[in-house]
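Session log. Operator J.P. requested a structure for one protein chain; no other inputs attached. Running the standard single-chain path with token output.
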Amino acid sequence: MGTVTRINRDDIINGKAGKRQGKPKGAVIHNDYGAMTPEQYVDWLVRRKNAGQLGLGFAQYYVNKTTVLRADNTGNKAWHTANNEGNAWYLGYEVVQSYYGIISDKEFIKNEDMTLRQVAEDFHYYGLKPNRDTIKLHKQFSSTSCPHRSWELHGKSTNAVKDYFINKVARYMSLGKTVENMLAKEGVSAPVATVPNTVTPQPDGKTVKVGKQATHWETGKVIPKFVIGQVYDVLASKPVTKSKSKKAYLIGKGKVATGWILEQDVDGFKTAGGGNTNKATPATKPVITGTTTETQSIAGVQMFLNRWFYGGLTVDNLAGSATYKALIKALQTELNNQFNAGLVVDGYWGAKTKAACVTVRKGASGNLSRLIQAALICKGYNVGKFNGVFSDDLYNAVIRFQKAKGLSADGIVGKDTFEALFK
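Structure written below.
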């Protein structure tokens, strides 16, 4: 009784965000919007570290119902809220496998409960009490739907969801000082890992395009508009009993799942004869194969804006007005989140947006550097890697751009260079 798998990998992050000067103020609860287990997050974080992409974000913990991954010492900061206060003074806890259709609500709550037990253990360690000041939601720090699934399950308001978490953490704290103590007092062992949905792995390289007719996931939730018309990898499939569909696909990018889609909503379903998408390859093949949010291309920029800033763009590899507007909105969002700029996020360049821009130079990393890369990519410049690191390649691209625009060619992105890039 009372066992849980612990993975302590402080060596992955190794204090990348800096040491906190004092004990944390509390916890921020996240839902990861994905399908990976804590074990899979180990590999994912190592790959991100090796690629120099930790600036894109990480939390201290990744937790499901059987496993607690600690990716860095809790005495260090983490880049998990897109907000200086949240990153420096609050511990980040990711409830994993949170995307709809990956696991049932019942299984998700088990993941959530184990996460809250870990919060309770850390609150004991740091002498914190669970209340509305110490337990926060990601969306309180930045413009995001996170924790999206907890939000839907526990009241759909900030205080309702927080109060649910507060009551759970207080209960767990009353049972013991460690997760193991709490589980033992409850009289249960950590659940055995199970596969909640029967899935059939698909051949490598199989893709589908989400058709314009698609409106709802297989689970009944509304499909976001930016998903419609996009090409996704097929991660798994399962049989279903619907009037038009006998199969559903788990679609995503790489190992990160997006959701379960019915075969009737695959582009080319009618061409395939209806009722079985295996009868023919979907009518529209991806124009740009292998594109991810890290690909140095306009399509990669569009996917990045869609995923991280809800850009709603068609991924067509064309730098049109909608893409530039989404870039400006993303910049305005980052300036608000990181520097409390107080900008209206409207996608229009103006004097206030220019005045809010800060100086970014070689050696920086994070979303501002990545948005600079994105703007240069859209203007046809080679920035090396689209990864949020202000490297020599980005420095040289900035100088080339500044020379072309008649600006002081110093490789430093200040207000005038920001304006030339984004206006």
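Operator note: The chain has three domains: 5-186, 207-279, 298-422.
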